[in-house]
Design a protein that fits this description.
By secondary structure, the protein is an all-alpha fold. It has one helix and no strands. The longest helix has about 160 residues, at about 1-160.
C-alpha cells in the first residue's frame, strides 16, 4: 500500500503541478490579453482625446471669431454713437454761435439806437445852448444899449 500511496501521492502532486502550470499559463494568457486590450483601450482613448481636443480647438476658434465679431460690432456701434454725438455737439455749437451772433447783432442795434437817441439829445442841447448864447448876446447887447442910453441920458441931464 505504500507503493500505491506513493503513486497516488505522486499522481496528486503531478496533477497539482500540472494544474499549477495550466493555471500559470492561463494567467499569462489573461495578462497578455489584458495588456492587448489595455493597449487597444489606451490607443482608442488617445484617439478620442485627440478628436476631442481637435473639436475643442475648433469650437474655441469659432467662439473666438464670434467674440471678435461681436467686439468689432460693438466698437463700430460705439464709434457711430460717438460720431452721432459729435454731430449733435457740432449742431448745438452752430446753434449757440448763431444765437450769440444774433444776440450780438440785436445788442449792437440796441446800442446804436440808444447812441442815436443820446446823440439827438446832445444835438438838441447844443442847439439849445447856442440859442441861449445867442439870447444872452442879444440880451447883453440890449442891456449894453440901455446902459449906454442911460449914461448918455444921464450925461445930458448933468449938462443941462
Amino acid at each position: 500500500m505504500n507503493n500505491k500511496f506513493s503513486i497516488g501521492v505522486v499522481i496528486a502532486i503531478v496533477l497539482q503541478v500540472s494544474a499549477f502550470v495550466w493555471w500559470t499559463a492561463q494567467q499569462a494568457q489573461t495578462i497578455t490579453q489584458l495588456e492587448s486590450e489595455m493597449a487597444e483601450l489606451t490607443a482608442r482613448t488617445e484617439v478620442e482625446k485627440e478628436v476631442t481636443l481637435i473639436n475643442d480647438v475648433a469650437q474655441l476658434k469659432k467662439d473666438i471669431q464670434e467674440l471678435s465679431d461681436k467686439t468689432l460690432a460693438a466698437v463700430l456701434e460705439t464709434n457711430e454713437r460717438i460720431d452721432g454725438l459729435g454731430a449733435h455737439v457740432d449742431r448745438q455749437d452752430t446753434r449757440i454761435n448763431d444765437t450769440f451772433a444774433t444776440q450780438m447783432d440785436e445788442f449792437q442795434t440796441t446800442i446804436q439806437n440808444s447812441f442815436n437817441v443820446v446823440e439827438g439829445w446832445i444835438d438838441g442841447l447844443d442847439n439849445d445852448v447856442e440859442d441861449i448864447y445867442l439870447h444872452i448876446d442879444v440880451s447883453h447887447q440890449g442891456l449894453d444899449k440901455k446902459l449906454s442910453d442911460r449914461i448918455k441920458e444921464h450925461k445930458h441931464q448933468g449938462e443941462e
